[in-house]
Amino acid sequence: MQGGYTGKYLDIDLQNGTVKVLPLDKEMTVKYVGGGGFNAKILWDQLPAEVDPLAPENILIISTGPMTGTLAPTGNSWYVGFKSPATGIYGEGRGGGYWGPELKFAGYDYLILRGRSPKPVYLYIENDKVELLPADDLWGLDFFKTVDQLEEKHKGARVLGIGPAGENLVRFACIMSDRYRAGGRGGAGAVMGSKQLKAIAVCGTSDVRVADKEGFIEALRDANKTLMAHPATATLLPDFGTASLVNGMSAFGAFPTRNFRSGVFEGAEKISGETMAETILVKTRGCYSCNIKCTRYTMVKEGNYAGVESEGPEYETVNAFGSRCGVDNLEAIAMANMNANRYGLDTISTGTLISFAMELYEEGILSKEECNGLELTFGNHEAMNQLLEDIAMRKGLGDILAEGVKRAAARIGRQADKYAMHVKGLELTATEPRAAQDSGLGHSVASRGGDHLRPWSPAYTLFNFGSEELGLGGTPDPIVPDDKANVVVQMQRVSTFTDMNGTCKFIVLCNTISPSQLARLHTTITGIPFTSEDVMQSAARVWNLQRALNNLKFGVTSSDDTLPQRLLNEPAPEGPAKGKVVELDKMKREYYQLEGWDDNGVPRRERLMELGLDFVAAELGK
Description:
This protein is α+β, with helices and mostly antiparallel strands. The chain has 25 helices and 17 strands. The strands form four sheets. It has a six-stranded mixed β-sheet, sandwiched between helices. It has a six-stranded mixed β-sheet with strand order 8-7-12-9-10-11. Strands 13-14-15 form a three-stranded antiparallel β-sheet.
């Protein structure tokens, strides 16, 4: 087997308790690389199209990439693939930390989980020893306590698992690892909970082999030199974490506020990364093989939230529980972040659901009685934190909100859907598209729904980070739709490749490490010759396979590539984008043309054949 891979994977049937150790297909490594690429191909091959996401027939794939567990910059990622209970379409999530490398050290590139265990279990992996063990004493525990017990029982193990939200089948529950790392979006935690699998504890003692050690060291030096010379990865993220974006995004009018009523938050400074550094920050941390160290470890030492202690909150969480809910109390946001981690809740979706309920309350659509007796006004951080717990435990209104904003709006009725901020059922993330047109396009066409990570193109438009190698020219003004389709395509390519190779997106999202540098790292690690063109082509292959999954198995069409009506029809009320709406149709047409998709958003046969997806083209022909 090439370098960067262990050459084995696990196929586990939870229903009957069987474990198979199977060889890795070399063709998979060449065409789909790893991580999200493996997940998409396995889902295409093995997932029944009509399966209920919470039924035993749904499969859950947890994978790594060839750079996971190496010294490649941020070589720490693990990925989950599944049919999403939040959206009913392609689902995926990524986590960092140390669990992914530990799976590689134990000798496995990925694992597939099938069926439903008759009783709660956890999976223990120690090199060649793989066993399903009873988890009755763990079921019902929050994730922190679960980690405590399993680390005590299995010394040196790294733990991945779910909290009560996953057990209660909250449709946007996370899978967590290393206490604070989350495979956050789309409800992988609910899928894991539906299988009655509480956790996976892993302990490994092997190394990850690199094909060309001397070449890899040179490629590594070059990549790290680039990262340490870039203002985002050398200064902003290490000094103030991802919340360093808060003040800038609000100034640009791109910081979603009060359920996307605005993109400007008057309390931005109070919840910024700079304020965090001055008040609740204890120390910075980094994931495995990361010298950026964007993670904040924080503790509230006084006031009503004294004793709150956790990693974060990072930018998306600050927005979700901060400006989106009208909250400018950083300590209250830290409390919500800690509890979301304990319960295993996606902070983005949870904050969106709470802000949605707050707007319904202020508009008179929901009464106080319907809100579990809470005064759900924007800015009420006590009510916000209580409603978060109610969602995790499916209590009262929390039970309705636990279904996700699209389903919740349908159940509430009374035109509540007008205030539901989602794409394809997945709640929107922390960029106001009226102030960042490319972000609006990126959200609308994303494989998993309202997604910010493929691409996070405002790194180019809002902060003027460009890359000659990617050919990002044109108009950088974020409120102008011209040339944005190309920006979205190119940023999708490089960020998709990081999801295949096992690294964090921060090495590419600000146009830091180039495709040629990625190719050099990949070649020296795996021994598989890769050029910058191969990086972009393989990413295009996986992106189009994900799209084909959505088109041909889950029924997604062009009409689903849209945004909430508020963003398309209601002009931004303030900030640099005042008076603007998202000009989506123009950008979408250009995007489809660049991707080689037809007017209905389906990849054309010739495009599929060009990408080596002939099996998809054959299915399209049917």
